[in-house]
Amino acid sequence: LGYPEEEVEAASVEDPRGVLAFQGGEEAALARLQKWMFDDDHLKEYFEIRNGMLGEGYSSKLSPWLALGCISPRRIWREAKRYEAERTENKSTYWIVWELTCRDFFLYKALSQGNKIFCRGGVIGKKIPWRGDQAALEQWKEGRTGDPLVDANMRELKATGWMSNRGRQNVASYLIFNLGVDWRYGAAHFEEHLLDYDPCANWGNWVAAAGLTGQRVNRFNTKKQLNDYDPQRQYVKHWGCDVEPEPETSEPGAMSQSQEIT
């Protein structure tokens, strides 16, 4: 494909800071499912641990195998139901099935809306004066914004191809609302780097993060999120980021509609 030999060799080496050494194929997918759900017994506590960012156990991390067709959502659902029958049924066991349903939602959203999920104005066709420039986008991509939570997650993505769900929500919100950059550049960057890239889930989540689906708009306060989900700063230190966030940017948000601050 024309890549330099040293770049190819570097890509084949797992970053030791990564959450998991992902291996392709159905056998690896089934082994991961068995280990996370049954051997380590994480499913019973999934609702409580799902917002983690450091380590391999806070989520199933089955999305790369799902995206590549190595395992089906129906198989995961069936195993979750077996877990409920053999061990326990609670909010956590419900939640993993709910997340599989969300995955289906984005498939159907893409089918119903077609190319609108890729358009600047999204599903609702809203005209937004994006103010962010190329320099801001590049700082975000490289994990050099000065916001430790954003930077740590972006460095993890670049080094490993993985990012937690909590991280994805925060970095998307920061690019869109703090930096005022067109959301499509973020979606395209994720498409380039994510191991679990899926066109419907990726672009569907990004257009929703930008508030362009007609649903509620969430703008994340990354300082609060850092205190809530990494209070000891273990995650941001793991990725070599300053432990205290910079003052909030004075850059006006890209949107003026009602937002829910989280």
State the secondary-structure class. Answer: mainly alpha
- β-strand percent reads under 5%
Structural shape: globular
C-alpha end-to-end distance: 43 Å
Number of helices: 13
Order of helices and strands: HHHHHHHHHHHEHHE
Radius of gyration, Cα only, in angstroms?
Answer: 19 Å
The residue ranges in which pLDDT falls below 50 over 5 or more consecutive positions are: 246-258
Question: What this model shows, in words?
Answer:
The chain is mostly helical. Helices cover 53% and strands 2% of the residues. It contains 13 helices and two strands, in the order αααααααααααβααβ. A two-stranded parallel ribbon has the order 1-2. Helix 6 packs across helix 11, helix 8 (148-160) packs across helix 9 (165-178) and helix 10 (183-193) runs antiparallel to helix 11. The longest helix has 23 residues, at 91-113. The N and C termini lie far apart (43 Å).
Give keywords.
about 260 residues, mainly alpha, two-stranded parallel sheet, 13 helices, 2 strands, about 55% helix
Kindly summarize this structure in a few lines:
This protein has helices spanning 5-11, 26-39, 46-49, 63-67, 73-86, 91-113, 134-142, 148-160, 165-178, 183-193, 199-209, 222-229, 234-238; strands at residues 218-219, 260-261.
List the helices and strands and how they pair.
Layout: H1 5-11, H2 26-39, H3 46-49, H4 63-67, H5 73-86, H6 91-113, H7 134-142, H8 148-160, H9 165-178, H10 183-193, H11 199-209, E1 218-219, H12 222-229, H13 234-238, E2 260-261
Helix pairs in contact: 5-6, 6-11, 8-9, 10-11
